[in-house]
Every structure is written in C-alpha cells, then in structure tokens.
Amino acid sequence: MNWLDFHFIRPYWLLTLIPAVGLMIVSVKHTLSRGQWVDVCDVELLPFILENKNSSQSHWVFGALSFAVLLAIVALAGPTWERLDTPVFRNDAALVIALDLSQTMNATDIKPSRLVRARYKIADILRQRKDGLTALVVYSADAFTVTPLTSDVATIESQLNALESHLMPRQGKDTQSVLKLAVKLLKQAGQKQGNIFLITDAVKSDVDQLSDELSAYAVSVLGVGTESGGPVKLAGGGFLKDRHGNIVVPKLAASQLASLARKAGGSYSAITSDDSDIKTL
Question: Do both 76 and 155 map to the same domain?
C-alpha cells in the first residue's frame, strides 16, 4: 500500500463536509447555550429551570450520528489506493469488411480454399481491433449486410464459419453494389470518415467508376489467390466449368485490385500465410 497512490474516485462528495460540519457546530453551540433560555433568563437560574436528564446519553448519540455522517461522506467520495489506466486516445475509426462470396472464392490455389483463408484473415483482423466500429458485408451478384457497424467484434466472428458461396441467391461479382452498401452503412452511422476493407480475387467493374462511389472513404484491398489460379471446387463435387465444358481456373487480378486501392486512397496486399498482409493494410 503506497500512500502516494491514495486518492478519491469522487472527490466532489467531500464538499458536503462543509455544510455537515457547519450543522454540527451550530448544534453543539445550541446545546451548550441550552437553547434560547439563555437569552431570557439569568445564567445563574438556568440550572434550577432546565432539567438536564440523560445529557450524557444525548451527547453520546449526537457524537455517534456525527461520526456516521462524516464516515458516510468519506465513503461516498470513494477512497482508494488503486489507479486504473486511463487511455489517452480511443480509436473510433469505422471499418466495413466486404467479403467476396462468389464461386471463384472456392478456388483451391491456396489451401484449403480462398474463402476459408479469407475467413481466417477476417478473424485475425477482428482480434486485433481493440476499439472502433466494425461491420461485415458479403456479396456476389448482390450485396448483403451480415452485421452493421458495431463494437461487438465477437458477434461478427461468430458468423464467419457460416459464410459460404451457396448461401448467395445469385452468383456474380458486383463489386460496385458492395461498395455502395459499405458507404451506406458508414453514412447511416454518422461516420464522415471510415475505411472499407475489400477481400476478393478480382473486380468485374470499371475501377474509375468504382472510386467515384466512395466519397470520403478509403478502400484497402486484400487479394486472395494466386496469379496462376486454381480450379473451383463445387459443393456437390467436381469442379466449376464454363459453358464449353472447360474447367474454370480463375486467377488473382492483382494489378486491377492494386489500381482500385490506389485510386480509392487505400493500400493493396496479396494474402500471406502470416500477418504481414494485415500490417501492410
């Protein structure tokens, strides 16, 4: 116990000691003067006029009550020796994570698949976010909100394992719709600034047109996959094929994604096996 650490959590309660002590002084003076009789009677006659029964008992009660009042005030002020660390800065920056759930994210050029690795990365990001607001949206041909902006990252993390491509009603890769949804969430939350974290393997829209949708929000991109590509496993078995019966081998459009991030005021990184990609972004 270090007396240098002694302090009050609510020191303003100590101000109530002033009126409390004042009332006690007035009460003591009133008792010593034996009420108002001293103003109308000679002091020599007071012992014969006033009865002074139980005076010692009344003094004891008054003293106990006074001590209890003082003790209560000190207790309300919250004396303590423990000091809690007070953060000098709180990061209230908002982040919207946009995850691509199109079929190409099931490619197996990175193991076990692009989508599984992307979910792992999101979990890593959520564990590193100590404060601020975070939202999760998913998209293919359409964009949907999984969780709106919230400080409860545990709720977002609990949803990750359920995110699969077959949940999407239509297949596609409408990047423009997910960026519009992300901007909408940020504006609805009153966030004049914020970041959008796009996790995908390619963009099927004009990059310049996409950057016009972003207003004051920056977009960073995590490219998932390899430039050599890999086949897309289907949930029912086999691999995704085009209309000519050829196996589709989607490749990571790294230059396109880097261009989008650069024009949208963000950063680009290809997915890595460690956390160097997250640090870059």
Answer: no
Residues 149 and 223 in one domain: yes
DSSP string, the chain: --GGG-EESSGGGGGGHHHHHHHHHHHHHHHHTTTTGGGTS-GGGHHHHS--TTHHHHHHHHHHHHHHHHHHHHHHH-EES------S-----EEEEEEE-SGGGGB-SSSS-HHHHHHHHHHHHHHH--SSEEEEEEESSSEEEEEEEES-HHHHHHHGGG--GGGSSS----HHHHHHHHHHHHHHTT-SS-EEEEEES---S-HHHHHTT-TT-EEEEEE-S-TT---BB-TTSSB-B-TTSPBP-----HHHHHHHHHHTT--EEE--SSSHHHHH-
Whether 2 is covered by a domain: the verdict is no
Put simply, whether the predicted model's pTM sits higher than 0.70 gets the answer no
Chain segment 202-237, per-residue pLDDT in tens: 998 776 776 666 778 999 999 999 999 999 988 788
Are residues 58 and 116 both part of a single domain?
no
- Can you give the residue range of the structural domain that contains 19? 7-80
Q: Based on the fold, state whether residues 111 and 231 are members of the same structural domain.
A: yes
